UniProtKB/TrEMBL annotation:
Cited InterPro entries: Methyltransf_11 (IPR013216), SAM-dependent_MTases_sf (IPR029063)
Signal peptide region: none
The name this protein goes by in its record: Methyltransferase type 11 domain-containing protein
Comp. bias regions, Basic and acidic residues: 97-107
Length: 283
């Protein structure tokens, strides 16, 4: 059976449309990392005794899953629109007896400094689930953020970092190369690069953390159709440098072409990927 190619580039919200971009992230893309969240929480036995600080919490899905296990969660993110969606998701929820959990759940705009609260017990788990290792320099701000979060946690607390797996095991790598080709062509912007084996360990070392185990998790990217795939991928922000170097229509057209090999006969888009996580410990 022949695959019907998408006749025109899809139309994703531009970077200037922060609410639209955040909504695409929350409704399409964020769920792709659910297997990663589940694997980490199971590995660390996240539950009622967990006091979690999520760095770059996005629209809050990982926090919601931890809260469902009984954890007390705090999330910080520099994206106003994503934090607003996270608040919609988490703050109205109840504990099953009708009482709101607003006192246990905090969602804050900013970085680790905003999560400091001397009236609350120290955190015993810090997560940084935004995967690194697909663009040059994408880990530059992570080590300082982790270092700033360490004083807010108990000694020997777990800190989780996530990264892309080897390109040969990540079908999405071929699509991400589109951004690299366009930015390299104009010698500007952030370029794609393959994940390196020790990316996570190097970040942990720079933050003063000690590695204490790792794992790999299959996280396929599956989309209902080409439009959803383009909107979901653009919501990550990974194509923004390419758009800045050319224009959104050009980048979308090339992304659609790169996605064609992953379109199945029913029109869905499916890309197998493997992600890696590292568990480190605070001093």
């Amino acid at each position: 059976m022949l695959v019907q190619h998408h006749p025109h580039p899809a139309s994703a919200p531009p970077a200037s449309d922060a609410p639209g971009r955040a909504r695409d992230w929350a409704e399409i893309q964020e769920r792709m990392l659910v297997p990663l969240y589940e694997a980490v929480y199971q590995h660390l036995e996240v539950g009622t005794g967990t006091r979690l600080l999520g760095l770059g919490c996005g629209s809050g899905l990982a926090l919601l899953m931890a809260a469902a296990r009984g954890a007390r969660v705090t999330g910080v993110d520099t994206d106003h629109a994503r934090v607003a969606l996270a608040r919609e998701r988490l703050l109205p929820q109840t504990d099953g007896r009708g009482s709101h959990r607003r006192g246990e759940t905090r969602l804050l705009h900013g970085g680790p400094a905003e999560a400091a609260d001397p009236t609350r017990p120290a955190y015993n788990l810090i997560t940084a689930f935004q995967p690194i290792g697909c663009t040059a320099g994408d880990s530059d701000g992570l080590a300082p953020a982790l270092a700033a979060a360490v004083p807010l946690a108990e000694r020997r607390s777990a800190v989780v970092l996530a990264g892309w797996g080897p390109p040969e095991r990540c079908a999405t790598s071929a699509v991400l190369r589109v951004a690299g080709r366009l930015t390299e062509r104009l010698r500007t912007g952030t370029t794609w690069r393959p994940a390196l084996r020790d990316d996570l360990e190097e970040v942990a070392s720079r933050a003063g953390l000690r590695p204490d185990g790792s794992g790999r998790v299959a996280c396929p990217f599956g989309y209902a159709d080409m439009d959803s795939a383009v909107r979901g991928l653009f919501s990550t922000g990974l194509f923004d440098p390419a758009v800045a170097a050319s224009d959104q229509a050009t980048v979308e057209k090339e992304v659609v072409e790169a996605l064609h090999p992953h379109v199945r006969p029913d029109g869905t888009v499916w890309m197998p990927n493997v992600f890696r996580y590292l568990v480190a410990r605070t001093p």
